[in-house]
């Protein structure tokens, strides 16, 4: 019992010494010290309150400062796309060059199975409108020994083909006669009479392209015009095909600096058309096509 009491007393003593600032000690402080301590706590609390308020006030201030910066930057950002738009040029649209058309045009006739090429600048007439003529409107007759010939097409060179010369007209003409035999096709109703003795000149055998043909020519002249015509015959598909090359000139070719046209050059151009002629084997019979030849043009003017 004695030992237990001593332990309790010692514990109480230790507690007293371990808490020097106790209610008893505080009560023993002078009044001025208590007031000073309370004031210190009050100042500390006020300082903490002001610090907290200043932190809260600083946040709107930061926003207020940063907002003008963002606002001032906005126009700069708006300008950038415009600047880049001027730098990046839109590719210019390519101008397509007009496609160059071929120099020659194709004529074909299904009734007689014949076709040929002719210059695009030349004038083509076919069917009932076919009417070859030379200087001063002289008609050029067919040169078959039997009647029944049909005019298929005519190609006329432009009147201004040879400026400064006496050139008046030139043409390529195609006729077909189904009423002529193969033997008769080798002859002509009108033959060359330019022989010195005035005797007719026999037809000449010529080769144009891959076709063998008979050829004759006629010539007439006066003081103001000259006409020259060349006739070619070939027999194919039971018909006689006649090709006519004509040249007409006008004037004396001695006045106003006018010169004679180069006849060889003109006929060479017409013979070039003749060299492109193609005749199909076994063409469509006339009754299957009709009385009017079916004419087809490709690549027209």
Q: Determine the mean pLDDT.
A: 75
**Unreliable residue runs:** 1-22, 60-79, 287-301
- Specify the biggest β-sheet: 7 strands, antiparallel
Please state roughly what percent of the residues sit in beta strands, choosing from under 5%, 5-15%, 15-25%, 25-35%, 35-45% or over 45%: 25-35%
- Supply Rg: 59 Å
- Helical amount among residues, as a percent range? 25-40%
Order of neighbouring strands in the sheet with most strands = 3-4-5-9-8-7-6
How would you describe the overall organization of this protein?
By secondary structure, the protein is α+β, with helices and mostly antiparallel strands. It has two domains: 30-88; 104-298, Jelly Rolls (Sandwich), CATH 2.60.120.1690. The chain is built from five helices and eleven strands; from the N terminus they run αααβββββββββαβαβ. It has helices at 2-18, 23-27, 31-87, 263-274, 286-289, and strands spanning 104-109, 114-119, 123-126, 150-156, 167-177, 204-208, 211-221, 225-236, 239-250, 278-279, 295-298. The chain has a seven-stranded antiparallel sheet with strand order 3-4-5-9-8-7-6, covered by helices on one side. The longest helix has 57 residues, at 31-87. The termini are far apart. Residues 1-22, 60-79 and 287-301 have low confidence and may be disordered.
